[in-house]
Amino acid sequence: MKKLFTTLQNIWKIKELRERILFTLGMLMVFRFGSFVVLPGVATEALDSNMSQNASDLLGLINVFTGGAFNNASIFALGIMPYITASIIVQLLGFAVPYFQKLQQQEGESGRKKINQITRILTVAITLVQGGGYLTYISSMGAVSPEIPQGIFWLSNIIILSTGTIFTMWLGERITDKGIGNGISLLIMIGIVASLPGALIFELQSQIETNGFIIFVLEMIFFFLVVLVTVLLVQGVRKIPIQFAKRAIGRGSTTMPIAGNRDYIPLKVIAAGVMPIIFAQALMFLPATVGQFAMGDDGEMAATGLLRDLTDFTSVPYNIIYFILIVLFTYVYTALIVNPQQYAEYLKRQNAYIPGIKPGKHTADFIDTITSKITLPGSLFLGIISILPAFAAVFGVNTAFAMFFGGTTLLIMVGVVLDTLQQIESYLLMRKYDGLVKSGRIKGRSGMQGIGAGM
């Protein structure tokens, strides 16, 4: 406890770090305040009584990522999600379209600026489409005030929703530039964490009323273990040792060979991050969308069999298919972002080599083999963590709290927290203070050392 207070004092002593933390907190407070400012013309009474609170479907997931702004029909209802969607689209285009490949790989800083501009324009377009769908969703629930003309309601709120998303994107960029970094990721994490206290309190009350306090303690122990495993998964790397060629110093008879430096290539166990889960979830939402067209007159789903099972995230068919999709997408996305040939060319340019492996094609094949071997256990662990919320719900954990036992929410929370702590620790070490931990160093998702970190 004494070391904790000492570390907090050291953080506060560093003026630049203190200002960045205070600036970040201020921006996050603005973001949370906007999540409760309701769109004009929305009848909140009808909205509260009709808005779905089910976190197992697409709308519930969006509500979690926006920190409840979606269900509140706030000016930040779409949050940062259109920007995330646009970023994913541009990233995928970089794998398939030569123009985007050139921007990403050959044009350096100017290429990145062009990509950012394209991403922003695409964000506005996606926001306009999603905003129209969101207003249609609100209107279908009868949550629009009859005193407001429909034309004015639609035009004004489309502009407000688009402005809200752009402003949220601006907040994220300001946090990255003037705060402690990772602005977009922090906004997503804050939205996720915002629903955690309420879900935790509700779970505590329900378990005390039914099963007793011991069950809740066991749940928290299991949750702690899941977080530990997730941290290991996010930080796990396979280090491939490399050797730089010897160089000579001096002239004539005084020339002396100097042994080359040793380094390593850090191949991440989960190089794909949360992208396989996002792609798998997108596909698993399709049966739920189809199920909406299979509703009977009484509001119950008329479809039976496999379709009904695929709309229930706790069912066996759902989790089997979900697990398989995550494993497949992990391999596919890893193959897209990890380029063994690029590693081999980089080593050749740096006059480095892997001991016992010939340069060129043999090096690329060796790296590709290692990547395939570590991706298999990584994809299996990622699939297991992704379906843990279903097991938690089956064992009696309420849906809102069960989703924190794994999946996208837990991986994002762990990754962003590690990145933020790494940023803070770097400031402490630069000022010659002790780090946040007694031994070792905190590594974020992008905080790997070695030549591969910059690729």
Describe the structure.
The chain is mostly helical. The protein folds into 2 domains: 16-194, Orthogonal Bundle (Preprotein translocase SecY subunit), CATH 1.10.3370; 198-246 and 259-455, SecY subunit domain (Preprotein translocase SecY subunit). It contains 19 helices and 5 strands. It has helices at residues 2-13, 15-34, 44-50, 58-65, 69-72, 81-96, 98-105, 108-140, 150-178, 183-194, 196-210, 213-235, 275-292, 306-310, 316-337, 340-349, 361-394, 399-402, 407-430; strands at residues 237-244, 247-249, 256-258, 262-268, 352-353. Strands 4-1-5 form a 3-stranded antiparallel β-sheet. Strands 2-3 form a two-stranded antiparallel sheet. Strand 2 (247-249) and strand 3 (256-258) form a beta hairpin. Helix 11 packs antiparallel against helix 12 (213-235). The protein is globular, with a radius of gyration of 25 Å. The two termini are 39 Å apart.
Profile the largest sheet.
3 strands, antiparallel
CATH homologous superfamily assignment of the largest domain: SecY subunit domain
CATH class of the largest domain: Mainly Alpha
Output the radius of gyration: 25 Å
Mean pLDDT: 78
> How far is the N terminus from the C terminus?
39 Å
The strand order across the widest sheet is 4-1-5
- Provide the number of structural domains: 2
- The coarse silhouette is globular
Low-confidence stretches: 253-258, 295-303, 447-455
Number of strands: 5
Beta-sheet strand percentage? 5-15%
Helix content: 55-70%
CATH arch. level architecture of the largest domain: Orthogonal Bundle
What is the element string, with H for helices and E for strands? HHHHHHHHHHHHEEEEHHHHEHHH
CATH fold annotation of the largest domain: Preprotein translocase SecY subunit
**Which structural class is indicated by helix and strand composition?**
mainly alpha
H/I helix tally: 19
